[in-house]
Design brief:
This protein is mainly alpha-helical. 63% of the residues lie in helices and 5% in strands. It has a 5-stranded mixed beta sheet. Helix 6 packs parallel to helix 9 and helix 7 (144-156) crosses helix 17 (351-369). The termini are far apart. The relative contact order is 0.11.
Length: 526
């Protein structure tokens, strides 16, 4: 099938690139067709192991905005944070895990260990889709060899291993990113109406799913859609592409409004509420603000780690501006999120599958230009440097707040109660206990309502006084308390008076985030 160079300049600029890819792409396609099931099986096994090894806490959203809501939908008890009362959260994401939970409940297999592990395992096939499309995108842009190295870089990426199987909306968005870009580039390059329509439907549908789950994807993907419409004008396919865009856009909006309105019990457009609250009104800054350059100077070196120089060099070496299109999309994502005050590593997680594609191309270029054993050693050293990072953060860093839930679950009874004296949302909640016992934590809603109360600030200002006033009698005190080790001495009088004893002391992290946290946490019992 004939491809059309769509670079704004004359076709001569990209002709050499297309000629270079032409002999390699059929071989790559043949290789993928021959080994696709073997490759998919190996990747699926790897990502399942990846999911099981993810036994640390990262951010509260991986449980509080997904599993906790799913648990409340299926089992009738659970905690919904203030976002679900605004409402600025959509139900499509937690419904994914709710379906899994419902199936386990019907089969009488709703064991706590399965409720915790299987949602991450459920992410494994989606992560494999992302892996495969990294391979396909790298092959499409730079040939089979570069595609294989792009896949190798994606597998080696420590942050991908750390996050891709977590129950975060950002993880789903990241897995869909190479799918969108691959089919978008095909839709832009091909001139056959049927093929353009097929690729357009795939990438537009993936964009729709991404925006339903993560509304901030709307301004990020908009330039891609507009660019395709502009290209379609030049090849006389504008009306067809516009029709597909409008149809799938309306389908996406209809699905989101229908599901969310049904679950909330009233008409609601969550995407608008989310963007209005976080972006237009700027309330996301209430949970912390960083400098405008944070994503460029601090976050990218963390996310891409040793792959960052390979990514930048690979983008610089591209023989055509068209081949840099995914790279500029990643830059646009960084620029967009840099304009927002509140910043987190996971917000720009989708740049990683884009970065590894250029890192793969750079590796091929280095191995061809410098055909020396040291070059190969250097490349594999850069890749292997990610392994200890991936294992440390997945198995060690911030594991205490997850591990303590196992001890609580085994120790509590139906009349037990648990108090978490730590920064809000530090631990998982009912989704990891799976028992309808009374539990309390230091809530921290944003200061946007007249009845705003930050229990965390009240407690940490005067810990002992807060406990004595809140639990004036022994009968009112909880049966179990979870807190970081540093706070134990400050509330020693209260704990001694009510005869609390230590059940277990657990390691949490070598690097506490702030003074409210420490390297160890303690579970106490009356």
């Amino acid at each position: 099938m004939k491809r059309r160079d769509i670079h704004p300049s004359p076709a001569e600029e990209a002709a050499s690139v297309n000629d270079q890819r032409a002999s390699d792409i059929p071989e790559a396609v043949t290789w993928l067709e021959t080994h696709r099931w073997r490759l998919f099986g190996a990747l699926l096994l790897f990502r399942c192991i990846n999911a099981v090894l993810s036994y640390t806490a990262f951010v509260p959203d991986e449980t509080w905005q997904s599993l906790e809501v799913s648990h409340s939908i299926v089992f009738g008890y659970g905690y919904r944070t203030w976002e679900w009362h605004m409402p600025i959260r959509g139900f499509t994401h937690p419904l994914i895990y709710a379906i899994l939970y419902k199936a386990l409940a019907l089969l009488h297999l709703d064991w706590p260990c399965l409720l915790v592990v299987l949602p991450r395992v459920l992410h494994a096939p989606l992560a494999v889709v992302g892996d495969v499309y990294v391979l396909k995108l790298g092959t499409h842009l730079f040939g089979k060899r570069a595609g294989k190295y792009a896949l190798l870089c994606n597998i080696a990426s420590w942050f991908t291993f750390y996050c891709v199987t977590r129950t975060l909306s950002n993880s789903i968005e990241t897995c869909l990113t190479p799918v969108v870009i691959y089919h978008w580039m095909n839709a832009c390059e091909l001139t056959n109406k049927v093929e353009v329509q097929r690729h357009s439907r795939v990438y537009l549908l993936m964009i729709g799913i991404s925006c339903i789950i993560r509304p901030t994807g709307i301004p990020l993907w908009a330039p891609l859609v507009l660019a395709h419409l502009w290209i379609a004008v030049r090849v006389r396919l504008f009306w067809g592409v516009l029709r597909e865009t409008v149809m799938l856009g309306l389908l996406t909006v209809a699905w989101s409004i229908a599901v969310d309105s049904y679950c909330y019990g009233k008409l609601v457009v969550v995407q608008w509420n989310f963007l209005e609250f976080n972006v237009l009104e700027g309330h996301s800054a209430l949970y912390g603000a960083d400098s405008w350059h944070w994503y460029f100077t601090e976050d990218c070196p963390v996310l891409l780690f040793t792959l960052l120089p390979l990514t930048l060099l690979g983008a610089w070496l591209c023989p055509s501006n068209w081949l840099r299109a995914p790279f500029w999309l990643a830059v646009w994502e960084l620029v967009f999120h840099s304009a927002l005050s509140h910043k987190e590593h996971r917000y720009v997680f989708p740049i990683v599958p884009v970065g590894v594609v250029y890192a793969g191309y750079c590796i091929v270029w280095l191995l061809q230009k410098y055909q020396h054993r040291l070059t190969r050693y250097l490349v594999y050293t850069l890749l292997l440097a990610n392994v200890p990072m991936a294992l440390y953060f997945s198995l060690v860093h911030q594991r205490g707040t997850v591990a303590v839930m196992d001890y609580i679950r085994k120790d509590v009874q139906s009349n037990s109660s648990v108090l978490f004296l730590m920064p809000c949302h530090s631990t998982p909640y009912y989704s990891h206990i799976h028992q309808p016992i009374k539990m309390e934590f230091l809530e921290c809603p944003p200061p946007i309502r007249d009845d705003y109360v930050d229990l965390g600030k009240q407690f940490y200002s005067q810990p002992s006084s807060w406990l004595n006033s809140r639990y004036p009698t022994p009968e009112s005190a909880p049966s179990h308390i979870v807190l970081f080790e540093e706070i134990v001495q400050e509330v020693h009088g209260f704990l001694s008076a009510l005869n609390y004893t230590e059940v277990v002391k657990l390691f949490h992290t070598h690097f506490p985030e702030d003074k409210r946290r420490s390297s160890y946490l303690v579970l106490l019992k009356r």
